[in-house]
Write a structure and sequence with these properties.
This protein has about 300 residues and is mostly beta strands. It has one helix and 25 strands. A hairpin with a 4-residue loop joins strand 20 and strand 21. The longest helix has 7 residues. The protein is globular, with a radius of gyration of 18 Å. It starts with 8 loop residues before the first helix and ends with a strand.
Length: about 300
């Protein structure tokens, strides 16, 4: 997610609701106001899973609860370890995460990052694949129509592809316009990515053989600042804009996108997840996971 309204704890808890029923607003404090929840996902059981960009923990919130419990502890991975992307893969019962660990003694800081797969129910480790290079940024991912996992590397302008059942990913696309690639999703079988550095949205054409082409710039009808987490549902793209404090929906028409603001005034929204009639998102700057009813 990004490289970069507060409420009292009691207020956040009071506002938290039984999100198993959806269609209502919720605010949940993830640990504390400094937890920096970067990305989130929802398991088929209704459990909300939230990563931390300030600690080596992944948290879970059970349906009907307002308390975030530690689900995964990666503190043994090294000082400063944190998490970016979160994605629940129901088909393989896997929680996909991006784990980042600073390289000691490097200035500016370099990071070793890894794609981690954990059992979605128990948190037991299942898979680890270290991204190539001395400095990488595993950021987010999406599952394609081919059941493969597509992974963004923000620092190196790359997208990797992990074929279903494989233990290691392969380079899918590297392109200069992808330096800063962040959110990634499929809408109606078409691959879209955004660029958090340059405030861009791209379509990635893929031919019948599965080979990607040059990213196509999608013109947006209003400025977007810091597009970060991005997911698709109901024929639209949903985007967390960390630079403008906005949650937006985008309707794609060819090479153009119509942007609709759904919620503004947020403190660094970075993650987003549409689930049924509920739209979840994170406010990294104040340690909250929140939801609003899915727009009709």
């Amino acid at each position: 997610m990004s490289f970069s309204s507060a409420c009292r704890v009691a207020t956040c808890i009071a506002l938290a609701v039984s999100f198993a029923h959806g269609a209502v607003a919720a605010e949940i404090l993830i640990g504390d106001a400094k937890s920096q929840p970067e990305s989130l996902t929802v398991a088929p059981s209704g459990v909300l899973i939230v990563g931390s960009a300030s600690s080596p923990f992944v948290y879970k919130v059970r349906p009907g609860s307002s308390t975030a419990e530690k689900f995964i502890d990666a503190s043994a991975e090294g000082p400063g370890t944190w998490f970016f992307g979160m994605l629940a893969d129901a088909a393989s019962n896997t929680l996909w995460t991006c784990q980042l660990t600073p390289v000691p003694g490097t200035t500016p800081m370099r990071k070793h990052t890894a794609l981690r797969g954990f059992d979605l129910s128990t948190g037991t480790p299942k898979l680890r694949w270290d991204l190539p290079g001395d400095d990488s940024t595993c950021n987010d991912f999406a599952i394609g129509p081919d059941k493969a996992l597509y992974i963004t590397d923000t620092a190196n302008g790359r997208i990797y592809k992990l074929t279903a059942g494989a233990s290691a990913a392969e380079l899918f696309l590297e392109h200069r316009t992808l330096l800063g690639v962040d959110g990634i999703t499929f809408l109606d079988g078409v691959l879209y990515v955004n660029n958090v550095f340059f405030n861009k949205l791209y379509r990635i054409p893929v031919d019948a053989a599965g080979k990607p082409g040059t990213p196509v710039d999608i013109w947006m009808d209003q400025p977007v600042r810091g597009p970060d987490g991005m997911r698709a549902a109901n024929g639209k793209l949903y985007v967390a804009e960390n630079g403008s404090g906005i949650i937006s929906a985008m309707t794609i028409n060819g090479d153009k996108a119509s942007v609709t603001v759904l919620k503004d005034g947020l403190k660094t929204p970075t993650g987003i997840e549409p689930v049924g009639d509920t739209l979840w998102f994170t406010e990294r700057a104040i340690g909250k996971a929140e939801s609003i009813p899915m727009p009709k």
